[in-house]
Amino acid sequence: MSIKVLSRVLPPSPPHFVGDGFRVHNFIPSSLPMQRMDPFIMLDYNSKFYFPPTETPRGVGAHPHRGFETVTIAYKGRVAHTDSHGGGGVIGEGDVQWMTAASGLLHKEFHEADWARQGGEFQMVQLWVNLPAQDKKSKPKYQAIAHKDMPQIPLDGGGMVELIAGEYQREKGPATTFTPIQLWNVRLPAGARFEASLPASFNTALLVIEGSIVVNQDAHVPTDHLVLFRNEGEEVHIEASSDALVLLLSGQPIGEPIAARGPFVMNSPEELLQAYEDFQSGAYGYLD
Ligand code: MN
Fold it and tell me: Fewest CB atoms within 10 Å of the CB: 15, 55, 128, 285?
């Protein structure tokens, strides 16, 4: 086993709004191409941002997806989600929704009404996780993953790892995935350390949600920055320079061609065209 070689530390890109409810820094595909973190083909990060109280919840109205999964991790604030396949729910601090769009659906994503009425600080990550060609045609699915259902593994020297998906020290995260994925929240008080071993072939990154860290003993990484590793070495070392929360993403690349446009991620231009035609003909169901 050797140290996983660091590639780059990426600052958050200038933010933009998705609908009127999500003020995001796009790391993938703006700063990194989709293939680089395959199967993680999109990463939007709403860094801490204050939304004033409103009677009209902010968000994104009905829109389609096909060919992949959307994973929303709530750090602050509450999001309500509904889809045309009967999935939906509300997630709050620490919760995750894992929506498999696969063959296609419509969904909408808004700040939860009571939370919107209060307003407050909002912080969230949305990932798009690609699906292998054979699974792009499978039925849509919705997994509500409550924070209380995530195994919390205490670390020697303080802090813990919370598992959303994947496995650490023989504990398993609750999310069901189509390909091997590790998605963990690493919570470290200042001075605490964390070590993990992840295959060199897996695409691996860290997003610093809170605080600041030192990675592999030499790279200082501030809040809201993304650490990208090369596909060399296995061992990741993190030391918290201040109380820190780090999202760790690591996944086995699918390695298939990616044809992506707007809300659809397929394998070929022909399939993309079909996705648009099916959307126009109402094949994804109905959502008001
Ligand atoms: Mn969406």
Answer: 55
